[in-house]
Amino acid sequence: MKPFDWHGIWAPEMHPLEVIFRVSMVFLFAQLVLRLLGRKELGRYSSFDLVLLFLLTVCLRRTLVGDDDSLTTGFIALATLGAWDRLFSWLSFRDRLAARVLEGRPLELVHEGELVHENLRRSRISRRELLSQLRSHGRDDLGSVRAAFLEPNGRVTFLFREAGQ
């Protein structure tokens, strides 16, 4: 039996600045790709979405830290990801323009009971899918909807007409 290598689990093979640079580039590129994919894909997890997320991590593992299996490199990579996430969260909180760029704006899908076809097409949400979301709120008639929005987090929110309207 081989003795436990206390030094080997901590000794990084990559320079810490290279790890930070690699992780930063991959994180920023992944954010760009996910932003270009659109909100619908992030608001629900189908089997395709889960496979994509799983394969994304498998594909990028070596890009992030190469062959370096040290705990130090793993910790540096994780801390870098956390720092980028924290920075984006802080920027979104502090600055409306940054929030719009990083998170996006709500997209109106229904206006006064009528579908906004251009926005449905742009967000790749079918009428059938929207009606399914509406039924999850206990309604089945678009006429009862004053407005519906695709939120930046990928969820659809509905504003309903009052009973007398």
Characterise this structure:
By secondary structure, the protein is of the alpha+beta class. It folds into two domains: 6-103, no CATH class; 107-160, CRO Repressor. It is 60% helix and 11% strand. It contains eight helices and four strands. It has helices at residues 6-10, 16-37, 39-43, 47-65, 71-94, 96-103, 117-123, 127-135; strands spanning 107-111, 114-115, 145-150, 156-160. Helix 2 (16-37) packs antiparallel against helix 4 and helix 5 crosses helix 6 (96-103). The longest helix is centred in the middle third of the chain and has 24 residues, at 71-94. The chain is elongated and about 75 Å long. It starts with 5 loop residues before the first helix and ends in a 5-residue tail after the last strand. The model has no long low-confidence stretch (mean pLDDT 86).
Percent strand equals 5-15%
Q: Residue ranges: pLDDT <50 for 5 or more in a row?
A: none
How far apart are the first and last residues' alpha carbons, in Å?
Answer: 79 Å
Number of alpha- plus pi-helical segments: 8
For the biggest sheet, the summary is:
4 strands, antiparallel
How many domains would you count in the coordinates? 2
Note the overall shape. elongated
Can you give the mean pLDDT? 86
Which structural category fits the helices and strands? alpha+beta
Strand and helix order: HHHHHHEEHHEE
Proportion of residues in helical segments: 55-70%
Tally of strands: 4
- Using the CA coordinates, give the radius of gyration: 22 Å
The strand line-up of the biggest sheet is 2-1-3-4
Task: Write a concise synopsis of the structure shown.
With about 160 residues, the protein is an alpha+beta fold. The protein has eight helices and four strands; from the N terminus they run ααααααββααββ.
